Amino acid sequence: MRLQAPLRLQYHQIRSDRDKNLSLRYSVTGPGADQPPASIFIISPISGQLSVTKPLDREQIASFHLRAHAVDINGNQVENPIDIVVNVIDMNDNRPEFLHQVWNGTVPEGSKPGTYVMTVTAIDADDPNVLNGMLRYRILSQAPSTPSPNMFTINNETGDIITVAAGLDREKVQQYTLIIQATDMEGNPTYGLSNTATAVITVTDVNDNPPEFTAMIFYGEVPENRVDVTVANLTVTDKDQPHTPAWNAMYRMTSGDPSGRFAILTDPNSNDGLVTVVKPIDFETHKMFVLTVAAENQVPLAKGIQHPPQSTATVSISVIDVNESPYFVPDPKIERKEEGLPVGTILTTFTAQDPDRYMQQTAIRYSKLSDPANWLRIDPNTGQITTTGILDRESPHVKNNMYNATFLASDNGIPPMSGTGTLQIFLLDINDNAPRVDPQEAKTCETVQPNATNITAIDDDIDPNAGPFAFELPINPPSVRKNWTIIRISGDRAQLALRIKFLEAGIYDVPIIITDSGNPPKSSTSVLKVKVCQCDINGDCVDTDRIVGAGLGTGAIIAILLCIIILLILVLMFVVWMKRRDKERQAKQLLIDPEDDVRDNILKYDEEGGGEEDQDYDLSQLQQPDTIEPDAIKPVGIRRLDERPIHAEPQYPVRSAAPHPGDIGDFINEGLKAADNDPTAPPYDSLLVFDYEGSGSTAGSLSSLNSSSSGGEQDYDYLNDWGPRFKKLADMYGGGDD
Questions:
Q1: Three-class secondary structure assignment of 114-135
Q2: How confident is the model at residue 497 (pLDDT cuts 50, 70, 90)?
């Protein structure tokens, strides 16, 4: 509030009691006088009159604290300073201002009268303790005005907006817009200043509308044995706000599916119910399902709503018959059979059943799908299984005495279907494997002590066709029992030892007869390769390398010889290849002149050299060809016509060491004349012979072809008869004297 005062308004006068006897001077200090904001208050030094020089604004500075001083003409203080407090009186010079121009609030639909909605606030810069700053609120307008033009009211002092009428329905009116006015002077329309703002009230949704099915009966169908298939779409409507808990539908089946073959999922976008098959359905047992389905919202209905909380509908689902796969009974089928059965033995009959009772189909046909050892055959019509090989429990295809084979059963439906079944044959052991010694090599000492060697008997059969085993040495050759003895120390172990006091070091083959406990028993002779060696006091061999070398077997020697022969053949082939390569290289060198061979040479082109000083060439070889070919090898009396003629050497002009630039032209002309008159300078004025072919020729002279001597005796008139192409030739030779 600005105090509009004229310039130098006389505000107050200060007088001292001593101004009657003394000549005093008055001054004032403090904010507004000699401190910022300075010069607002001034005082007359003579009269002490305090004046205001500028308009005052209470909203900026509500009060000033000044101090007045009185001194004599010498500047001596005659009285103590006094405090002056200037309070600026407020004037209504500011309008109310809302904190926001647009206010947003919400209210649930169906709210009762008196429900709080929101609060709007305005401020006034004037003094709030006087009428200038006392505000009052009121609603100027409401849009839309349905169902009542006065759906809301406002507290004129606090700005709180509340509902005053019932009937808020989001499905009819989703938003209200109110114009709010704030007026100071306690709302006096005549003297108060006003301002307006907008209040936007959004009516929020509550669950006052349950979902409703769009039809009473829904239909669907599904092929049998299909899962994760949507068979029906259930559609509902809901007037509440989409994608809110009051709109989202939940579906549940109330009857018709006791075994839980169906489930209903909610589409999050359309809110539809998707009826899905979660368990296979057999047409032969269930041809149709009639389900009762209920739909309700995620949140319960609001209180006071007169609608039922859920909607119900019926879903009729038909099951479609399809061709199903045959199935074996039982699966797997277990048979106990002895190993070693002869080929062609009937093991069992393995058949399948077709679940399609309402389809006309022929008999099922059988085939083999998996038979790792190829031991079995199945009859394609009856399913009878016979053996095509000897069943062997010790086969690597048998695991834990069990052999597995898989068979296929196929029908002729549309489309054809097939099923698999597994036959498990538990093989009973028979005594068909003789025991053998393990390990097959052993070491012992030359002397009796210590010389015992432990051996173990192994048998691929199992009890009672395996151990305990009997160990013995054969009668023949006699040296075996003479040199060795064997003692059983357990059911599958025995100890081999020397019978004599000393046996020469070497490698000995000791046959051992091992018999199992089968009925009848089975025995075999295993050869144990024993290395007899010199031993130390600890019983360890000390000459193993010598024994191994001495006892090298025939097979090992043959293998070593073969390796040596192969190595020699490879060396011989390499030598032959190298010689052939050298011959080819020499042949190539004979065909190529070394001077013409440009391989690995550096060829230089456009080499101009370094001037006359480095042209150290013997040009006489070019001017005198006879120097290249010695006279000794030329035929007598034969001289090449392109050889240099024998004449006196001409005299060429000699250029002075330091010629005058004007003499260069004369020097060139004189040299040119001397070269033109030099008969010895190439090219020679003679026939050029490029190769000498020898004296004489079997061919006759070509001088007889000289047409100039006999041209007049020829008649060329016949050229005119050869056509226009020979007209020019006829004119040249047949034209008479012309």
A1: CCEEEECCEECCCCCCCHHHCC
A2: confident
- Whole-prediction pTM: 0.44
Give a three-class secondary structure readout of 414-473.
Answer: CCCCEEEEEEEEEEECCCCCCCEEECCEEEEECECCCCCEEEEEECCCCCCCCCCCEEEC
Residue found by looking up tokens 């019509």 in the block: 381
* Averaged pLDDT, 521-542: 82
Strand segments, DSSP code E, in 152-267 are: 152-154, 160-163, 175-183, 194-204, 212-213, 217-223, 229-234, 236-237, 249-255, 262-266
437, two tokens: 């010694």
Cβ atoms 135, 121 nearer than 8 A: no
Residue whose C-alpha is closest to residue 3's, from 41, 50, 56, 52: 56
Distance of CA 173 to the CA centre of its chain: 53
Q: pLDDT per residue over 74-127, tens digit each?
A: 888 888 888 888 888 878 888 999 999 999 999 998 899 999 999 999 999 888
**Residue 639 — very low, low, confident or very high, per pLDDT cuts 50/70/90?**
very low
DSSP state letters, 460-524? SS-TTSS-S-EEE--SSSHHHHHHEEEEE-SSSEEEEEESSSB--SEEEEEEEEEE---SS--EE
Question: Which pair of tokens denotes residue 420?
Answer: 């698999």
Measured CA angle at 711 (ends 706, 715), to 5 deg: 140
- What torsion do the CA atoms of 387, 392, 396, 399 make, to the nearest 10 degrees? 90
Token look-up 């107050």 returns 12
| Token output for 68 | 């007045």
β-pairing, 2-3 with 56-57?
antiparallel
> pLDDT digits over 563-595, tens only?
999 999 999 999 998 888 888 777 666 555 555
Q: Which of 400, 431, 238, 403 is nearest to 332 (CA)?
A: 403
Q: Pairing between strand 441-445 and 523-533?
A: parallel
Condensed to tens digits (0 to 9), the pLDDT of residues 260-273 reads 999 999 999 999 99
Q: Which residues pair with 286 in a beta bridge?
A: none
Query: Minimal CA–CA distance to 240: which of 196, 325, 305, 294?
Result: 305
Spatial separation of the C-alpha atoms in residues 712 and 532, rounded to whole Å:
126
207 touches 198 (CB < 8 A): no
Task: Starting at the earlier edge strand, list the strands of the sheet with 346-349.
Answer: 346-349, 384-387, 376-378
- Ramachandran sector of residue 574 (left: φ over 0; alpha: ψ -120 to 50; beta: rest): alpha
First to last CA, the chain: 139
1 and 90 Cβ atoms separated by less than 8 Å: yes
